[in-house]
Structure formats: structure tokens, C-alpha cells
Amino acid sequence: MAKGPAGARDAVRRFALGLPGAVEEFPWGESVVKVNRKVFVFLGSGDSTRPPLITVKLRDEAVHAHALTVAGAEPAGYGLGRSGWVSVPLTGGGTPAGELLCEWVEESYRVIAPKRLVADLDGE
């Protein structure tokens, strides 16, 4: 996994785009990865105007709680936090390992994706 916030963001982006049916779009001038026309990870603008972060939907209570222990992590804005969305910053010494970030992206994908695509992911 690449080093630094930009490297972590790029690795998460590559992982997300490798999931069945995933496509990248740029609403609001920011990168999102969607499946079946629904966002499963927000990747932000990718430039230096704002600190890098990812936002994912984590339905599992333990996983959600763990994500919120990351320094600076918070429920997502615009009311998304009430539905389990968490924004996790990719800066500072407390940034989670890339593997953990990808696990959270996969969890978000599994919540959003149609069952047939989740079955494809599982090799069924």
C-alpha cells in the first residue's frame, strides 16, 4: 500500500473500483464510487483544498464504533451519519492501515450492492 494520505486514498480508490459493478463518478466535483447507481464510498476531491478522507456506510455496530475511534472520524454530514455513514480522515498518525480502510469499503459495498453482485464478490 502506498504511503501518505494521497497513497491511502489512491489504494482505497483502486480497491473500490475492483469490486463487481463499481464505477467512479464526480458529482459535486468530488470522487465517489457507486454500484447500481448508489454511492458506497465518498473519496473527496483528491486535491489539496481539503484534508483527504473517505466516507463509508458501516451497518455492523462493532465496525461502526471502531471506525469512530479513529482520530478525527465522525458521523458523516448532511444527515448521512444517522444512517451509519462515517467520515474517516486520512491524515495524521492515527490513519488506519490501508487493509482496514479497504475492509470498511468492502463492508459499505456489501450494504449498498445488489445481492447478485455480493454473490459475485463471494465467488458464488
TrEMBL record:
<keyword id="KW-0238">DNA-binding</keyword>
<protein>
    <submittedName>
        <fullName>MmcQ/YjbR family DNA-binding protein</fullName>
    </submittedName>
</protein>
<dbReference type="GO" id="GO:0003677">
    <property type="term" value="F:DNA binding"/>
</dbReference>
<dbReference type="InterPro" id="IPR038056">
    <property type="entry name" value="YjbR-like_sf"/>
</dbReference>
<dbReference type="Pfam" id="PF04237">
    <property type="entry name" value="YjbR"/>
</dbReference>
<dbReference type="InterPro" id="IPR058532">
    <property type="entry name" value="YjbR/MT2646/Rv2570-like"/>
</dbReference>
